[in-house]
Amino acid sequence: MDLDAASPPVLFQTVDVLGRRVDAVGEIGKTGLFYVLDRDNGKLIRKSNDVTSINMPGHADHDWAGGTTWSPMSFDSSLGYVIVTATRHLKPEPRRHGLAELEREWRVIYSSVSAINVATGAIVWQDEFEGGLVGGTTSTAGGVTFVGEGNGYFDALDTKTGVRLWRFQTGAGVNAPPVVFALNGDEYVAVASGGNEQLGTPTGDSLFAFRLSGK
To answer: Is residue 28 part of a domain?
Structure first.
């Protein structure tokens, strides 16, 4: 089983069981569990429920493409929520010629976006999507989280509730993490839409930028 921790960790402050503020590092991987560690000594503070199974029917598959594989997560410091994507249901398919020599290939059937309270490890809300969400999430200080879907949609979610606020069809799989930046006093979010042959998502060659402030 290929269960290495491939997604990038996130740094934040949390409160441990004794009420002391702790500089922490969080990591979620292919097991579907979010681990909170003390940054100074590496000791485990807490871990979350399994984001691939809570509140949803079906089953979770843990393999090289299961759980949270390469997807980056985001952190909202005002809420104390980390927002993660995860693959919930995979379907094995025959390996196609010319692709990486992996043990087997998968088609992603369902994925989820989950908000985890880093102070308790509880999953606050969760929503299910068809297809893959391997691009991960990006959250803004304004309470919006962006996520790209393998089917080409680019979505904005309410970070506090998970409600879907907006979506845009890019024409190819959004398998890259969104990037937020400021330019001439306006805030923008940009994302690449290129797809992925190995994951079977529509391919393309586009970069989209959307203005979040101003007219």
So the answer is: yes
Q: Are strands 186-193 and 179-183 parallel, antiparallel or unpaired?
A: antiparallel
Q: How far is CA 149 from CA 135, 154, 189, in A?
A: 8, 6, 16
Question: 133, 172, 137: which is closest to 156 by C-alpha?
Answer: 137
The end-to-end CA distance of the chain, in Å, is 50
Q: Is the pLDDT of residue 150 over 70?
A: yes
- How many domains does the chain divide into? 1
What is the average pLDDT across 185-198? Answer: 91
The predicted model gives 144-172 an average pLDDT of: 97
Q: Is residue 205 part of a domain?
A: no
Counting Cα atoms < 13 Å in the Cβ hemisphere of 40 gives 4
Higher pLDDT, 131 or 16: 131
**Tokens encoding 14:** 């949390």
Check which CATH number belongs to the domain holding 145 and give it: 2.40.128.630
Rg (CA), the chain: 17
Of 186, 153, 191, the closest CA to residue 169 belongs to 153
Q: Report residue 31's pLDDT band, with 50, 70 and 90 as the boundaries.
A: confident
Q: Report how far residue 176's alpha carbon sits from residue 93's, in angstroms, rounded to the nearest whole number.
A: 23
Give me the percent of the chain exceeding a pLDDT of 90.
55
In a domain, 81, yes or no: yes
Tokens describing residue 39 = 């940054």
Q: Which domain holds residue 23?
A: 10-173
- Whether residue 44 is contained in a domain is answered as yes
65, amino acid identity: A
